[in-house]
């Protein structure tokens, strides 16, 4: 079956793509991860029959992804496929942005922003007209509220504070090394850079070439202020019987 052209969008990306109706849903999800940065298990897929349609249909999560093909989902030329993330973890969002910034840029044709704004029938213009995404006043108000919450909590956190992160089932203790904006993640919000005691992080204090502090590899993490609890959290020590024979 011949390839077809569709509009593929997510909260971080929008582009026109060609795909084959013969693709299995499993193969499509893996390809989409390379474009959106959203892992297959975290993808929520919505189908809009046209790029400017406001009616959408979700793809059933219970479908067998190995046996279901895109042609079974009634995807045709001009369909808009929107990928959402089921997760709200800020570190996952950071990972998605990392993936998008390290992917092969040569496969995308990039227009000058002013030229793009003058074009009709673009995803951006569609979002503006329908007040979706960042053009949604309700969503914008919600983000402003989050920004103010972050600022208020960040004012109580200081570099050098011992802390515990509350956004994980695994106890993660560390020391605050940075408080401020990180444009590589989000230019508007305040982030807390933490040097973790154990290697549960994703970096060494550097994000996409921007260095904010220095620590061991996989000991650095950037998180929202609201998940940082400061206090008397001394580094955990190994029980006596777990120490090596030459430790006294």
TrEMBL record:
Domain Ubiquitin-like: 2-90
Source taxon at top rank: Eukaryota
Keywords: Chaperone
SMART domains attached to this UniProt entry: CAP_GLY (SM01052)
Keyword Membrane on entry: no
Chaperone found in the keyword field: yes
Domain CAP-Gly, residue spans: 190-224
InterPro entries cross-referenced by the UniProt entry: CAP-Gly_dom_sf, CAP-Gly_domain, Ubiquitin-like_dom, Ubiquitin-like_domsf
Family under the similarity heading: Belongs to the TBCB family.
Protein name in the entry: CAP-Gly domain-containing protein
The species this protein was found in: Dekkera bruxellensis
């Amino acid at each position: 079956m011949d390839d077809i052209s569709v509009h593929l969008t997510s909260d971080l990306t929008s582009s026109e793509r060609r795909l084959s109706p013969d693709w299995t849903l499993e193969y499509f999800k893996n390809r989409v991860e390379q474009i959106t940065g959203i892992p297959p298990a975290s993808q929520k897929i919505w189908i809009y029959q046209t790029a400017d349609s406001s009616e959408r249909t979700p793809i059933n999560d219970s479908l067998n992804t190995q046996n279901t093909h895109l042609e079974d989902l009634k995807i045709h030329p001009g369909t808009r496929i929107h990928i959402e993330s089921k997760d709200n973890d800020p570190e996952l969002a950071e990972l998605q942005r990392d993936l998008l910034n390290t992917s092969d840029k040569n496969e995308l044709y990039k227009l000058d922003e002013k030229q793009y704004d003058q074009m009709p029938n673009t995803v951006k213009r569609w979002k503006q007209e329908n007040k979706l995404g960042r053009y949604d006043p309700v969503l914008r108000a919600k983000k402003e509220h989050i920004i103010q919450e972050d600022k208020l909590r960040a004012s109580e956190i200081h570099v050098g504070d011992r802390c515990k992160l509350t956004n994980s089932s695994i106890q993660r203790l560390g020391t605050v090394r940075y408080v401020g904006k990180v444009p590589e993640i989000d230019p508007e919000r305040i982030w807390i850079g933490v040097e973790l005691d154990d290697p549960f992080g994703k970096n060494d204090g550097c994000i996409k070439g921007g260095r904010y502090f220095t620590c061991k590899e996989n000991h650095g993490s950037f998180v929202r202020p609201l998940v940082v609890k400061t206090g008397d959290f001394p580094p955990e020590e190994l029980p006596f019987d777990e120490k090596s024979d030459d430790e006294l």
